[in-house]
Amino acid sequence: MSIRDRVATVLGFNAIPTTILLVLVYAAIFSTVLVTDNLPSVPRDTRGLDLDQAWLDLHQVSILVSSLPIFRSVTLQSKVSARPHPFNSHANDLVHDYIRDRLGDVASQYPHVTIHDDFVSNASWASALLSAKPYAVYYEGNNILVKVEGTDPDFRDSGGFLLSAHFDSVSTAPGTTDDSMGVVTLMQMVEYFAKNRAKRTVIFNINNGEEDGLNGAHAFMEHPWANISDVFLNLEGAAAGGRPAMFRVTTTAPLYSWTGDHVPHPHANVLSAESFSRGVIRSGTDYSVYEQRGLHGLDFAFYRGRSRYHTKYDSIPGMVGGKKALWAMMEGTHGASLALANDDAMHTQPGKQDHPVYFDLFGAALVVFSLETLFVTNVVLLTAGPIVLLLLAYSKHIVRLSKRIRHRHHSHSHTSVNGSQRNETSRERALAVLKKIGTSLWGPVKFWAALVVSVGLQAALIAGYVDLNPFIIHTYPFLVLTSATTLAYLTTVLVLTVPLDKRGVVPAPEQQKLSILSQTYVFTWILLVFSTVLLRKIAIGSTYFVTAWNAVVLLGSIVAYVEGMTSARGFEPEGDTEPESQRHLRGIRYEAVSTDEPTNGRQTPGRIVEDPEPTEITPLVRRERPLPPRPEGEEQGAIGWWILQLLLVVPLPVVLIFHIAILLLGAMNQTLTDGNDPSSLYSLVSILALLIVLPLAPFSIHAHRLLTYIVLVVFVLSTVFTWVAFPFSQETPLKVYFAQTVDLSTSGTGIERVVTALTGPKQFLASHILRELPSASGKPVECYDSLDKVGLRTCSWEVSDDLVPSPGGRKFASSGIEKPWVSSSFLRTGSNTAQISVRGLNTRSCTLQFSNQRISKFRVIGDGEKGLQKGYEVPEKGLEQIRLWSRDFGKEFEVEVEWKDGNTSEQDVNGRISCGWAEYESATIGGGRSGGKIPSLEEIINFLPEWAVVSKSSASLFEARRSFSI
């Protein structure tokens, strides 16, 4: 074997080289994306931030060590307990005091640092965005505000930079990730900017009440410092640690703070922002309030470990990543903050409302461009791409035609043929043409056939998951992706390697590759049309990967056409007068998965069946004969061309799509317990899996049989396991939602009934959860579709006297008479106006619910005449509910309400008044010293299976209510 033949064996377009290169490319992509998706290590140089102090602060804020007042040097080896600190709890005040005192010490050392404990700002607003019922809110804030004046006096009263995080948790979680890590990060940034003054003034809003409706951000908007900033960075936690992501951005300018050397490990994708804006992600952060006010900025949040979110596992022991997760938030915040506080280019110019497209690559670089740039690129590709390929196809046809003429001339000058032979050859040639028309129809459609078969089988796989084990993606998301990806590979490869006819005759591999590549280009062109329409109509930019895919397939097709016009043997014209040395081209029985057995000392792509004078209709069942020696340069495909095409066509789209797949799996795999539709989630996984595989289609004709067997085994094992495995574990628990209602007598002291309710997936709620609870055993349980959490089931039952909750606080007045849980009074002040007073015992939260009237105006007496915040006016149909929040426990709210008069001036106004509580013995300071008790919740915590965990269903864990009529 000559050196050139050996090189052709190793680098030619054969089964083994092609398979090896494909495996290496995909392995490199998968491993690199997965490795860089992990949390980076903490560097030695922490850029002036004190990670150890932040870690100590995190323990104080989320665990509430009992050694108060503040400590700084303890080793935290003393016994500590995780304590939720929602707004409506006494623990919340302790967290507030710790943060205020820590920052107060910093402010006392620097004259340009001012701290304001905001017990003044109150806010009222109406909203129907996060609830099916239109409601209004009155909130009295106690945010902790810090101002670090900049060095440039021009930016001390305007043009500043806002940093925001909230220090309250939900009532069922210590809130380590949501949002204590954001808070301690801001505490470090206060110290940093105090020591290293920025050009612009920096405002810190460490706010309270975010969990109950973004209340703290609304209250901040009533403070004068809210007018200083024009750009913001909000820190949030929507999960339990891991790698945080820059979730949303208002405009392009502040996004550049995440590029270059500012943030060493950027993690961001426009898909998350568009999921928020289109309602796919049903959640809200303070970002929404700042954006509504007209500020431009960013939303930086944790998003992985959703099953631990708002549960007892959102704690320091339960967080994913530990110190590395905390450093990831600190590092990103530090880099972006320096840019936003010092660089004028990061501030959006007034009146400019551009929408960026952005994504990170391997956690090392952030790619940013505008929607308009993407649109122009799409238009150019849609118009210029087909023109270029048509010109190349025509040029290729001209080249082939000239070669055919040369070959015929060569044949007539060297061959003597009599008339009868010529007539016979003509008849055979005519039959061959007809045969070729029939058998060649498969080539131009087999990519589409593979696509249809793949989609059909993916649909069957989705149905299998939904019917057999819909929640398995909760714990095993990568196995589900593996199952879908291997199925996509098997269907793509097996359909594309089906032979042209029963005898297995196929064109040369280069011809097949070009044919499939051309069909792939048409497919991406169609996708590009669709994505361009979405981009123009509704400003969707997350289909940027389609643009990249179409572009690289266009480049690969151009290379393939150039290959066909220059050096590729497989593109030689076919004819009955070709030289003997070239006749084997038309006689190849090509096997898509070749064993690559040597013939005559060299590698062949398949078996060669040859007649003395082969024609288009020569049977292929004759005896095998050795292949005649190849002329120089007749190796299986030109060396290098196919490698260049593969490296052009495959890596980039696979990298972009796999990045999206990892992001979506991390963010959405545990959302089914929130009520999301499993069919939609599994369909999304299947689409991504198919898109990951399709770029290899043009080269799949040389997929080795051994690789196909391995992929088949992986598919069977991953699918069978994920169809039968239990979907939850202690590390990835099932989340159920608790609520309790207490119906009070008219006096507000007597209890008529107490009902406990649990909400969760119907497949597990009754059969696995309720049967473990003693209070539900033997009791009539009513189950119905959840009103607040679409897609979930709620089961409720009445509990006995020993499980009645207690609001805590002072139970008896000085006279010895028991104080009512909810006290109220009502006064009709006009035909369509009334004044309502309400007070709750040991609580900061009460609610007015109206059943037969919609409220058009309301005002809390003592709050002045400010009215509702701009942009949050009462909707035209009026309000059904008014939520009242006080900074003090046990405050009496006096509310004036007005409704549309119409013909109802003589009617009574009916409704329900209630107050809520969020403290329970095992989660309050000092083992329940505040007096709050919720025995039903304690029962659920103790009796839930280890693979389940409880979370709150609403702002209050239990509410006491009674009806009213005015």
Automatic annotation (TrEMBL):
Keywords: Glycoprotein, Hydrolase, Membrane, Metal-binding, Metalloprotease, Protease, Transmembrane, Transmembrane helix, Vacuole, Zinc
Subcellular location: Vacuole membrane
GO cellular component annotations of the record: vacuolar membrane
SUPFAM superfamilies: Zn-dependent exopeptidases (SSF53187)
Major localisation: membrane
Regions that span the bilayer: 7-29, 361-394, 445-466, 478-500, 521-538, 544-562, 639-668, 680-699, 706-726
Protein name: Peptide hydrolase
Organism of this sequence: Paxillus rubicundulus Ve08.2h10
Lineage: Eukaryota, Fungi, Dikarya, Basidiomycota, Agaricomycotina
